[in-house]
Write a structure and sequence with these properties.
Length: 276
C-alpha cells in the first residue's frame, strides 16, 4: 500500500523543483523529506530520481508517477468530500489523530459503541487534521502542538511516552533507569503499521534498525508472545498490549514524549465532555 502523504511530498517536490524549497513548503527537514522519497521508491520498487552531487531531479519514471499522483490525490479529495456529505446524513463523529495514543487514553469513547453516535477514526498529519477540523471534515482532532485559532477550541489532554518492551534475558533489560534510542539503534523491532507521528520518530532515531511491521494487533501480540525480538508500548497502551514476561524500559530521549492537544470547532466543544 502506498502512503498518500508520500505522493503529496512528491508533488510538492515537482512543483517546487528542489528538496530545499519543497521541505520549506511542507515544514519538513531536508533529511526527513529525502527519507520519505526513498520510502516511496521502496514502496513502488522503482527509482524516481536521478541523483548527482548536490542535486536530485525526477527521472522519466518520476515524472510519470507525478501524473498518477495528481489523479490519486484529486480522487482522494473527492472521496473526502463524499465522506463529509455522508457524515452529515448520519450520526457519525469523525476523529483524526497524529498517532493512536488517544484511543488508549479514552477507551470508553473510542472502543465502545456510543448510544447516540458512531465514532470514525483516522491517522493523519497534523496540518491535515487542522485543515480538516476547520473544514468540518473532522469533528475532533488530536494534534501535538498547541494551537491559537479564534475558530477553534484547543485543550491539552495527555502526554504519551514511549517504552521498549524487552524479554528478561535481553542484555539491556537490567538498565532500570531507561535507554536512549542510540542504545538500541541497529536492533530489530516488532510493531504495528500506521503509528503516525511515532513512525516519523522511529525512522529518525532508529535508522539502522529493521522495523518488522504487522497489520493486525492480535497477530502482533501473538508473535511477540513467542518471540525474543523487542517491541514498543507507551504509558497509555501498555495495559492493553504489555506482556507479563516483558521488561518495560522508558526511552530517555526528548523525542520519546509527545503531547496531545484536542481541537474542535467552538460550536462543537460539547463533544469534549465525552473525553473522560
Amino acid at each position: 500500500m502506498i502512503d498518500l502523504y508520500l505522493l503529496e511530498y512528491l508533488l510538492a517536490f515537482y512543483q517546487e523543483g528542489s528538496l530545499l524549497k519543497a521541505s520549506e513548503k511542507l515544514h519538513l527537514s531536508q533529511p526527513s523529506l529525502t527519507r520519505s522519497m526513498q520510502k516511496l521508491e521502496s514502496q513502488l520498487e522503482i527509482a524516481l530520481f536521478d541523483r548527482k552531487a548536490n542535486k536530485i531531479t525526477l527521472n522519466e519514471n518520476g515524472l510519470m508517477v507525478v501524473e498518477y499522483a495528481k489523479d490519486i490525490l484529486a480522487m482522494q479529495e473527492k472521496l473526502l468530500q463524499k465522506a463529509k456529505e455522508i457524515k452529515q446524513n448520519n450520526k457519525i463523529i469523525s476523529v483524526a489523530f497524529t498517532a493512536p495514543g488517544p484511543r488508549f487514553r479514552f477507551p470508553h469513547f473510542f472502543m465502545h459503541p456510543q448510544d447516540k453516535f458512531i465514532v470514525s477514526t483516522t491517522i493523519e498529519k497534523e496540518d491535515a487534521i487542522i485543515k480538516g477540523v476547520l473544514n468540518n471534515l473532522y469533528d475532533l482532532g488530536f494534534i501535538n502542538h498547541p494551537l491559537d485559532d479564534e475558530n477553534l477550541v484547543c485543550k491539552k489532554v495527555m502526554d504519551e511516552h514511549l517504552y521498549i518492551a524487552l524479554p528478561p534475558t535481553h542484555f539491556l533489560a537490567k538498565m532500570n533507569q531507561g535507554v536512549y534510542f542510540k542504545d538500541v539503534d541497529g536492533q530489530s523491532f516488532l510493531l504495528l503499521t500506521h503509528l503516525g507521528v511515532w513512525d516519523d520518530i522511529l525512522d529518525k532515531h532508529l535508522s539502522k534498525s529493521r522495523l518488522l511491521h504487522q497489520n493486525d494487533q492480535q497477530d502482533l501480540k501473538e508473535i511477540i508472545s513467542f518471540s525474543s525480538i523487542p517491541s514498543f508500548v507507551t504509558n497509555w497502551s501498555k495495559k492493553f498490549n504489555a506482556f507479563s514476561d516483558r521488561v518495560l524500559l522508558p526511552f530517555l530521549d526528548e523525542d520519546a514524549t509527545i503531547p496531545f492537544y484536542v481541537i474542535c470547532k467552538k460550536k462543537k466543544q460539547n463533544l469534549l465532555s465525552y473525553l473522560k
